[in-house]
Write a structure and sequence with these properties.
Structural class: alpha+beta
Low-confidence stretches: 241-251
CATH class of the largest domain: Alpha Beta
Shape: globular
Radius of gyration: 30 Å
Helix content: 25-40%
Oligomer: single chain
Distance between the termini: 23 Å
CATH architecture of the largest domain: 2-Layer Sandwich
CATH superfamily of the largest domain: Bira Bifunctional Protein, Domain 2
Number of domains: 3
Largest sheet: 9 strands, mixed
Number of helices: 17
Length: 571
């Protein structure tokens, strides 16, 4: 490809709003151009890299017997109503009416469509298991797109779906898909950490994410350096005082009567500790949420924070925090609410974290301005309809697996896998006949890999101050070829090399610009091998070959350039 004809343009500086290294590089190298918030046009260089990623993904999925399909982006809303997700998902799901007045959606994911395919094809256990995959455009009306290609509204994804007779059969294939994903990441040059994760809107009963560790990552990960435990903070668990019961000393086990404490202005845990001369783990925090129909009173030890995703999973329903106006309307005494003597003008579901259930006497709000109650204890003074772990795990918590000290990392999600079970097949009637002739719901798995996000992840991992350093497996071109200076013999030799090397392998900088600009752009665009022809290199015996990743440089006779350059690019 001749750069003078290329539909892309490099920039010396990236816009100030580009936060992540990958975003800055994408804009500076002219790989993509923003058309609207979270919607980008990919230029030829980016698309060539994307096609390489797609090729690798296809090869690894076909290696485990995956069959490629193509499911529609535009889908009837009725399909999503069958799965109950049409009303469960908010504005992220784009909805519209077609010309005939039929309700339609733009698919943000394809579980409904693939389940419809399965129920039309699979009838017997003899047809199972099955694994299909596709590479398709998705649209998620993300309210806060960021990071260039990291969080998009329109994006390209490789998603896969498997169908089984049993959970055991799903488990076996699930591990094969995980191994295939790890092979994909290795081939594109990405070290990833596999972490347990929330199932979210996908549903199911188990999920994992493949995370690239990056300071600018959106996700907080909890890891144990001792035993290797790793989970997204959304669902991470810890042991002992980190998310479980407070330790009771002998004196604390003695029954204490309730007593009122005058605590003016103590509307926070820190202020309460100052007023009552106590530690945060001796207090009870009361946080109100709403499901839309009922209030939820979440009770947790004062030194801990509520993890809303774990709370949602415990309750089995979405929750959101109350606004100040809603709190006032429900007559809550903000800053002094507690479970003893609570009076509100709406139905309330009380849920207690494990730290509260096993705790000693705690200091809780008295539901009266400027007063708290000391000596409050679960089981004697109040109970809850739901109990369980919904505490936020943080750095310094104790690992539930080995007792080590947990740490936090930041990560960018590059892929995910889900064990869906019968989440979709049961509601949508996707069944098979077992060996006894009985009808059973198909057991399903789901496997996602963000193709455009993977491109961004590669740039996050492979760059230096000068620009991109493409892994050879996905580089848009193997070589950057340039003629430096105005020497006629050098230009003639460069033109001849371009023909021999091949336009499909070579990005040839034939522009009428200075050698310095060419060198800078070659480093910025980051092809594996730079080939420079100049009067100086010809005098030294040929062309100068420079490996972008290592900086290794050598002079190679012109006749040997194709062979040596290929070996260096593939090394």
């Amino acid at each position: 490809m001749r750069m003078s004809q290329m539909m892309a343009r490099t920039q010396r500086q990236a816009p100030a709003e580009a936060e992540l290294p990958s975003h800055r590089l994408i804009l500076r190298a002219g790989l993509a151009r923003q058309l609207a918030a979270g919607i980008y046009t990919l230029t030829p260089l980016a698309l060539r890299a994307v096609r390489q990623i797609e090729r690798i993904a296809r090869e690894e999925m076909e290696r485990i017997d995956g069959q490629e399909v193509l499911l529609p982006v535009v889908q009837p809303a009725e399909l999503w109503r069958e799965s109950s997700r049409y009303d469960a998902i908010g504005n992220e799901l784009a909805r519209f009416d077609d010309a005939g007045g039929r309700a339609m959606v733009l698919a943000m994911t394809h579980e409904e469509a693939v389940t419809d395919l399965a129920r039309s094809v699979i009838t017997s256990y003899r047809q199972l298991p099955q694994l299909v995959f596709q590479i398709q455009t998705k649209f998620r009306d993300e309210p806060r797109p960021r990071g260039g290609l990291v969080r998009l509204r329109e994006f390209l994804m490789k998603d896969g779906y498997s169908f089984h007779t049993s959970q055991a059969d799903l488990d076996a294939l699930y591990e094969r898909v995980v191994a295939a994903y790890l092979a994909i990441f290795e081939r594109v040059g990405l070290p990833v950490l596999v972490v347990a994760s929330d199932t979210g809107i996908m549903g199911g009963y188990e999920a994992h994410e493949f995370m690239l560790l990056a300071d600018g990552g959106e996700d907080t990960l909890i890891v144990c350096p001792t035993c290797g435990y790793a989970a997204n903070q959304e669902i991470a668990v810890a042991a002992g005082d980190a998310s479980g019961a407070a330790t009771e000393h002998a004196a604390e086990r003695e029954e204490q009567p309730l007593r009122r404490l005058h605590t003016p202005g103590a509307t926070t845990i820190a202020a309460l500790c100052d007023a009552a001369q106590c530690a945060a783990n001796q207090t009870l925090k009361a946080v109100f949420y709403t499901t839309g129909e009922r209030l939820v009173l979440a009770l947790i030890r004062g030194d801990l924070a509520v993890n809303e995703i774990k709370l949602r999973n415990l309750l089995g329903v979405e929750v959101r925090s109350l606004s100040p106006e809603e709190s006032a309307a429900h007559r809550l005494v903000t800053g002094y609410a507690g479970p003893v003597g609570l009076r509100v003008n709406a139905p309330v579901t009380v849920v207690a974290d494990s730290s509260v259930v096993g705790a000693a006497h705690l200091i809780a709000g008295a539901n009266e301005m400027d007063y708290h109650l000391a000596g409050v204890r679960y089981g004697r003074d109040f109970t809850a309809e739901f109990t369980g772990d919904f505490a936020q795990v943080t750095a310094g918590s104790v690992c539930a697996t080995c007792g080590g000290i947990l740490e936090t990392r930041r990560g960018i999600e590059a892929g995910n896998t889900f064990k869906l079970g019968a989440e979709y097949s049961a509601t949508m009637g996707a069944t098979f006949r077992d060996e006894g002739g009985a009808s059973q719901p198909i057991v399903m798995g789901c496997y996602g890999l963000g193709i455009t996000r993977l491109l961004a992840c590669v740039l996050e991992q492979h760059h230096d101050d000068a620009g991109i350093i493409w892994p050879s497996t996905i580089a848009p071109y193997a070589y950057s070829l340039l003629a430096a200076g105005n020497d006629g013999a050098a230009r003639e030799a460069a033109e001849a090399l371009y023909v021999v090397l091949g336009a499909e392998w070579t990005l040839y900088d034939d522009r009428e610009v200075s050698a310095g600009v060419k060198f800078n752009d070659a480093d910025l665009l980051g092809m594996p091998v730079r080939i420079t022809v100049s009067a100086r290199s010809l005098a030294a015996g040929g062309a100068e070959l420079r490996v972008r990743r290592s900086g290794e440089t050598r002079i190679v006779p012109l006749a040997d350039v194709p062979q040596v350059a290929r070996a260096l690019a593939e090394a």
